[in-house]
Amino acid sequence: MRLGLFGGTFNPIHYGHLRAAEEVAEILQLQRLLFIPAARPPHKHLEAVTPFAARLAMTRLAVADHPLFEVSDIENQRPDRSYSIETLRLFRREYGAAAQIFFILGLDAMLEIDTWREYRELFTLCHFFVLDRPGYESQELEAIMRRKVDERCEYLAGDGVFRHPSGNLIYFRPITRLDISSTHIRSLAGQGLSLRYLLPEKVRRYILKEKLYR
Known about the structure:
The chain is α/β, with parallel strands linked by helices. It has one domain: HUPs (Rossmann fold, 3-Layer(aba) Sandwich), CATH 3.40.50. Strands 3-2-1-4-5-8-7-6 form an eight-stranded mixed β-sheet, with helices on both faces. It is globular, with a radius of gyration of 17 Å. It starts with a strand and ends with a helix.
Protein backbone atom coordinates (compact mmCIF):
# COMPACT_ATOMS: atom_id res chain seq x y z
CA MET A 1 0.00 0.00 0.00
CA ARG A 2 1.25 3.47 -0.97
CA LEU A 3 -0.91 5.88 1.01
CA GLY A 4 -0.87 9.68 1.01
CA LEU A 5 -2.16 11.72 3.95
CA PHE A 6 -3.05 15.34 3.19
CA GLY A 7 -4.12 17.30 6.26
CA GLY A 8 -5.41 20.84 6.56
CA THR A 9 -8.32 22.95 7.74
CA PHE A 10 -9.79 22.98 4.19
CA ASN A 11 -11.82 26.07 5.04
CA PRO A 12 -12.86 25.70 2.27
CA ILE A 13 -11.11 23.19 0.04
CA HIS A 14 -10.30 24.63 -3.41
CA TYR A 15 -8.58 23.85 -6.70
CA GLY A 16 -5.16 24.68 -5.28
CA HIS A 17 -5.49 21.81 -2.80
CA LEU A 18 -6.92 19.47 -5.40
CA ARG A 19 -4.33 20.13 -8.09
CA ALA A 20 -1.50 19.67 -5.58
CA ALA A 21 -2.99 16.35 -4.46
CA GLU A 22 -3.35 15.21 -8.07
CA GLU A 23 0.30 15.89 -8.87
CA VAL A 24 1.57 14.30 -5.64
CA ALA A 25 -0.48 11.17 -6.31
CA GLU A 26 1.12 10.88 -9.75
CA ILE A 27 4.68 11.59 -8.60
CA LEU A 28 4.50 9.08 -5.75
CA GLN A 29 2.29 6.58 -7.60
CA LEU A 30 -0.12 6.49 -4.68
CA GLN A 31 -2.85 3.91 -4.41
CA ARG A 32 -4.95 6.07 -2.06
CA LEU A 33 -4.80 9.68 -0.95
CA LEU A 34 -6.73 10.68 2.15
CA PHE A 35 -7.75 14.26 2.82
CA ILE A 36 -7.86 14.75 6.60
CA PRO A 37 -9.68 17.91 7.73
CA ALA A 38 -8.38 19.08 11.10
CA ALA A 39 -11.15 19.00 13.68
CA ARG A 40 -9.51 21.27 16.27
CA PRO A 41 -6.35 22.76 14.71
CA PRO A 42 -3.76 23.49 17.45
CA HIS A 43 -2.34 26.53 15.64
CA LYS A 44 -5.68 28.30 15.11
CA HIS A 45 -8.30 29.92 17.34
CA LEU A 46 -11.22 27.49 17.27
CA GLU A 47 -13.85 30.23 17.21
CA ALA A 48 -12.38 31.46 13.91
CA VAL A 49 -12.64 28.08 12.19
CA THR A 50 -15.79 26.96 10.37
CA PRO A 51 -17.44 23.98 12.14
CA PHE A 52 -15.85 20.65 11.33
CA ALA A 53 -19.04 19.14 9.89
CA ALA A 54 -19.21 21.81 7.18
CA ARG A 55 -15.54 21.50 6.24
CA LEU A 56 -15.84 17.70 6.14
CA ALA A 57 -18.92 17.91 3.91
CA MET A 58 -17.22 20.31 1.48
CA THR A 59 -14.12 18.13 1.26
CA ARG A 60 -16.23 15.04 0.54
CA LEU A 61 -18.11 16.89 -2.17
CA ALA A 62 -14.84 18.03 -3.75
CA VAL A 63 -13.29 14.56 -4.09
CA ALA A 64 -16.38 12.41 -4.60
CA ASP A 65 -15.65 11.67 -8.27
CA HIS A 66 -11.93 10.94 -7.96
CA PRO A 67 -10.86 7.26 -8.06
CA LEU A 68 -7.96 7.66 -5.58
CA PHE A 69 -9.12 10.46 -3.31
CA GLU A 70 -11.00 9.81 -0.07
CA VAL A 71 -11.79 11.80 3.07
CA SER A 72 -11.16 10.75 6.67
CA ASP A 73 -12.89 12.15 9.75
CA ILE A 74 -10.32 10.55 12.05
CA GLU A 75 -9.36 13.80 13.74
CA ASN A 76 -12.93 14.37 14.89
CA GLN A 77 -12.98 10.97 16.57
CA ARG A 78 -10.67 12.28 19.31
CA PRO A 79 -11.80 14.82 21.93
CA ASP A 80 -8.51 16.71 22.05
CA ARG A 81 -6.74 19.00 19.61
CA SER A 82 -5.85 17.65 16.15
CA TYR A 83 -2.21 16.76 16.65
CA SER A 84 -0.57 15.15 13.60
CA ILE A 85 1.54 12.85 15.77
CA GLU A 86 -1.57 11.12 17.11
CA THR A 87 -3.06 10.80 13.63
CA LEU A 88 0.12 9.27 12.20
CA ARG A 89 0.39 6.81 15.07
CA LEU A 90 -3.14 5.63 14.38
CA PHE A 91 -2.50 5.14 10.67
CA ARG A 92 0.78 3.36 11.33
CA ARG A 93 -0.96 0.93 13.70
CA GLU A 94 -3.79 0.39 11.23
CA TYR A 95 -1.67 -0.23 8.13
CA GLY A 96 1.39 -1.84 9.71
CA ALA A 97 5.10 -1.38 9.15
CA ALA A 98 5.02 -2.59 5.53
CA ALA A 99 2.78 0.26 4.27
CA GLN A 100 4.44 3.20 2.52
CA ILE A 101 2.80 6.24 4.14
CA PHE A 102 3.50 9.74 2.82
CA PHE A 103 2.58 12.81 4.87
CA ILE A 104 1.90 15.78 2.57
CA LEU A 105 2.38 19.37 3.70
CA GLY A 106 3.37 22.77 2.39
CA LEU A 107 6.81 24.33 2.70
CA ASP A 108 5.49 27.01 5.09
CA ALA A 109 4.31 24.29 7.47
CA MET A 110 7.61 22.43 7.12
CA LEU A 111 9.53 25.55 8.11
CA GLU A 112 7.53 25.63 11.36
CA ILE A 113 7.66 21.88 12.02
CA ASP A 114 9.64 22.38 15.23
CA THR A 115 6.54 24.02 16.78
CA TRP A 116 4.50 20.81 16.33
CA ARG A 117 3.91 18.36 19.18
CA GLU A 118 6.55 15.60 19.32
CA TYR A 119 7.64 16.62 15.85
CA ARG A 120 10.85 14.60 15.80
CA GLU A 121 8.88 11.36 16.07
CA LEU A 122 6.82 12.31 12.99
CA PHE A 123 9.77 11.54 10.74
CA THR A 124 10.17 8.04 12.18
CA LEU A 125 6.57 7.12 11.33
CA CYS A 126 6.35 7.90 7.62
CA HIS A 127 7.84 9.57 4.57
CA PHE A 128 7.21 13.29 3.98
CA PHE A 129 6.31 15.10 0.76
CA VAL A 130 6.85 18.87 0.99
CA LEU A 131 5.06 21.04 -1.57
CA ASP A 132 8.08 23.11 -2.54
CA ARG A 133 8.17 26.60 -4.00
CA PRO A 134 10.81 28.48 -6.00
CA GLY A 135 13.55 30.34 -4.13
CA TYR A 136 15.10 27.70 -1.89
CA GLU A 137 18.42 26.19 -2.89
CA SER A 138 19.40 22.67 -1.85
CA GLN A 139 22.01 24.07 0.57
CA GLU A 140 19.35 26.13 2.37
CA LEU A 141 17.01 23.15 2.62
CA GLU A 142 19.84 21.00 3.94
CA ALA A 143 20.58 23.56 6.65
CA ILE A 144 16.90 23.69 7.59
CA MET A 145 16.61 19.91 7.74
CA ARG A 146 19.68 19.50 9.92
CA ARG A 147 18.73 22.35 12.24
CA LYS A 148 15.02 21.64 12.66
CA VAL A 149 14.66 17.89 12.04
CA ASP A 150 17.87 15.94 12.67
CA GLU A 151 21.51 16.87 12.13
CA ARG A 152 22.07 13.42 10.60
CA CYS A 153 19.65 14.00 7.69
CA GLU A 154 21.38 13.13 4.45
CA TYR A 155 20.79 14.99 1.20
CA LEU A 156 20.53 12.73 -1.84
CA ALA A 157 22.20 14.95 -4.42
CA GLY A 158 20.18 15.76 -7.51
CA ASP A 159 16.93 14.23 -6.24
CA GLY A 160 15.51 16.96 -3.99
CA VAL A 161 15.23 14.21 -1.37
CA PHE A 162 16.60 13.83 2.13
CA ARG A 163 17.03 10.59 4.04
CA HIS A 164 16.15 10.67 7.72
CA PRO A 165 18.20 8.47 10.10
CA SER A 166 15.11 6.23 10.38
CA GLY A 167 15.40 5.52 6.65
CA ASN A 168 12.29 7.49 5.79
CA LEU A 169 12.54 10.00 2.96
CA ILE A 170 11.60 13.68 2.84
CA TYR A 171 10.78 14.85 -0.68
CA PHE A 172 10.95 18.52 -1.69
CA ARG A 173 9.26 18.81 -5.07
CA PRO A 174 7.71 21.78 -6.87
CA ILE A 175 4.10 21.44 -7.95
CA THR A 176 1.80 23.68 -9.98
CA ARG A 177 0.98 26.72 -7.86
CA LEU A 178 -2.52 28.09 -8.33
CA ASP A 179 -2.91 31.56 -6.84
CA ILE A 180 -5.98 30.60 -4.82
CA SER A 181 -6.35 30.76 -1.07
CA SER A 182 -9.08 29.80 1.37
CA THR A 183 -8.69 33.20 3.02
CA HIS A 184 -9.48 34.99 -0.24
CA ILE A 185 -12.46 32.73 -0.91
CA ARG A 186 -13.89 33.48 2.53
CA SER A 187 -13.40 37.20 1.90
CA LEU A 188 -15.23 37.02 -1.43
CA ALA A 189 -18.07 35.05 0.12
CA GLY A 190 -18.35 37.58 2.91
CA GLN A 191 -18.78 40.35 0.35
CA GLY A 192 -21.32 38.36 -1.66
CA LEU A 193 -18.96 38.15 -4.66
CA SER A 194 -18.59 35.27 -7.10
CA LEU A 195 -16.66 32.11 -6.14
CA ARG A 196 -16.92 30.51 -9.57
CA TYR A 197 -13.81 28.74 -10.95
CA LEU A 198 -11.96 28.90 -7.62
CA LEU A 199 -13.34 25.66 -6.24
CA PRO A 200 -15.55 22.76 -7.38
CA GLU A 201 -19.09 23.73 -8.29
CA LYS A 202 -20.56 21.38 -5.68
CA VAL A 203 -18.55 23.14 -2.99
CA ARG A 204 -19.58 26.58 -4.24
CA ARG A 205 -23.25 25.59 -4.08
CA TYR A 206 -22.82 24.18 -0.59
CA ILE A 207 -21.29 27.46 0.62
CA LEU A 208 -24.19 29.44 -0.82
CA LYS A 209 -26.82 27.02 0.51
CA GLU A 210 -25.39 27.01 4.03
CA LYS A 211 -24.59 30.75 3.95
CA LEU A 212 -21.04 30.13 5.05
CA TYR A 213 -18.53 32.95 5.59
CA ARG A 214 -21.24 35.59 5.79
